[in-house]
Structure formats: structure tokens, C-alpha cells
Amino acid sequence: MSARPPLPTTLTGRHVRLEPLAMRHLGELFAAGGGDEEIWRCQGGPAPQTEEELGAKLAGLLEDAERGDCVPFAVIDRADGKAIGWTTYMDIDAANERLEIGWTWYGRAYWRSAVNTETKLLLLTLAFEELGMGRVQLKTDHLNHRSQAAIERIGAQREGVLRRHRRRPDGTWRDTVYFSLLAEEWPAARDRLIARLAGQGFGG
């Protein structure tokens, strides 16, 4: 029996709420991460220097969602109710019980906090326990060591590297590191994420 594809929904944790991404989040998103080169260096484009530039990226993502290519979420800090980043289900293949969690970013103020840990816990729980996925994929630039370390802390297994995979905005070539987590690996990974949220340390 095939898995079910994800639909726009709201997922609520202790620290963050994930809700369907919309243009109404633009102002808060720009305040959280607009113009920060370190955030956008590995996000497939130069850092948006104006709200309008970030709006163009957001509009493109929403167009992809309208076509059914992805399901994007705004990441909301429950402490103040503001959007602090976004994350996306993408490369969705319900027939083969797999999807990817990708195009994720958060404002720098939320790095090495509970935000990424709980965001991944919410998304992975939905994928494995409600949608019936057998594989969740994550990938990142080989130069983005912070992202690779965060993915490994989830419990995902490094699978390999696609060399010269994508051209960066500056013209250099990116190698892409692929990771995955399988359904049979999820219970142990879930326990680790829950333990970290309970106070055993954060890593972004």
C-alpha cells in the first residue's frame, strides 16, 4: 500500500508551529533573515537585500506548491508568534513512499536552538507515522558543514556525494551531500530528538 502525499497542514510543538507558508509571512521573514549572506549562501541564490527580493523567492516557492511540486511551511516562533524561516516537503513520491525535507532556513538568532530540532521532529513524525513514508531524504552543499552536522544529529545516514551537481550564484560548482532516514530507523531517531528537546543539548 502506497504512502499518502502530504497536504498543507499545521503542526504544533512546544517551541515552534509549522503552518502553510503564505505571502502574509513576508515581512516577518525578511526581518528574521533578509540580507544575511551567511543564511542564503547555500540557499541557491544571493541574499535578498529588500523585502521585494525575498518576496520574489517566496512567490516562486508558492508557485511550485500550487503546481503540487512541494508543500512549504512557515516556521513560527511560538514565543512571539512571528515567522522566523521556512521549510519544505519536496521531491514527493508517494507511490515509492519517499519525500525530501529541504529548502530550510531560519533566522540566525535561532541557530543552535530548539527550533531545528523540533521542526524536524514534527516533519518526520508526520512523514513516517501519518503519511506512511518509508524514506525521508535530506541534502546539502558539501561546504555547509553546519547543515551536515545538524542532519547527522537527527540520525540520518550519509549516503554519498553528487559531484559538480549544481552551479552556485557565484559561478562555482556545488557538490551535494545526500542523507536519508528510513522508517525502521525512525523510532531510535525520534527518541534522540525528544531527548534533545528535553534538555540534552541543541545543535541547530
UniProtKB/TrEMBL annotation:
PROSITE patterns: GNAT. Residues 21-184 form the N-acetyltransferase domain. Pfam families: Acetyltransf_3. This is RimJ/RimL family protein N-acetyltransferase. The lineage of its organism: Bacteria, Bacillati, Actinomycetota, Actinomycetes, Kitasatosporales.
